[in-house]
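in:
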């Protein structure tokens, strides 16, 4: 797994593409790489972070706590 599109990252992490954009906007997902055409590309580390956020939310942690 190298550079994933937002759809691929959503599928790999179980988080919707809309929520991925939201997490990036509020600063939970930082420094997402972009292509020259300004498309987001996600790394394995980004997918790991998304899975962590999803798991923390299912355990009842608030966005502020995460």
């Amino acid at each position: 797994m190298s550079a994933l599109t937002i759809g691929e990252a959503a599928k790999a992490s179980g988080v919707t593409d809309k929520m991925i954009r939201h997490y990036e906007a509020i600063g939970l997902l930082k420094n997402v790489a972009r292509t020259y055409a300004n498309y987001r590309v996600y790394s394995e580390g980004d997918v790991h972070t998304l899975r962590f956020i999803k798991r923390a939310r299912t355990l009842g942690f608030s966005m502020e706590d995460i």
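note: The chain has a mean pLDDT of 93.
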